[in-house]
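Quick log. Single chain, no ligands specified.
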Amino acid sequence: MPRMLDVSEDVRAEIGDAEADRLLVGDSAPGHYDCTSCRTPGDSDQERTSTVLFVGEETAVLAFAHATCIPSQVVRVAEDQLKGAMQSITGTAPQPSGDAGSAAGVEGRVPEQAVLGITSGLVLIEDDLRPALVVEPTGPIARPGTDGRGGDQFLQLLLEQGFQPAHDLNRLPTTLPGWSVLLAVGRLHAVLQPGTGGGQVAWWQAHQPLQVTEGWRTAANKSQTVLVFCAPAGSIGQQPREDLLRDALDKAAVNGLLVAASMPLAGT
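-> predicted structure:
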């Protein structure tokens, strides 16, 4: 019996007509699955189901989601990111420690091995709770290729990438073309930026996929947009509650220490 699968033209182009047709007639598609977006059960025999293809340099992983959660699409990611996503999809990834609001970092590609910390939270803007990520390095960021004597260049580097100063947190930041936030299997994997040779590469990547709260994930899937706020080291800190996080963001904005951008949700 044909299954209720949506296979986008982009996905078909990647997997080929033969495999796409096998999916559509039910030969190679699961009847039951866990939605890679909301993590609740799905049934491709009973409800519209999207095929989501994660594509790396050497590997591709096909996942399934409720069509009401996300459309069928191709998500291009770095190979190491894809391996982490594949482990999560198959259920073999190590579980991240800490709560959903804990920070995670990666080694920055900057002098002094600066580490970017990320905290997730919901921020009230225009009478709606918006999913947000707050990025704050553990130390000053120097411009690549310099000895760091020019001081902390974190915000300046982001402004050059297209981020905008955030003076008023009651207004939504503008969308940053080419950037996106990768959420796979309900966990945060990376913030992606345009690659020099096309496609996207990781600007920030979690050592292990980070859990986010159900409310954050629901808001992100609803809006298909994530707000990303960035501040220099020591401006925000680790805040135990979202109201305190908002207060810290407001203070950084007033002091001219906050830049922001809206980014589409990539994947699930």
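The CA atoms of residues 90 and 135 lie 29 Å apart.
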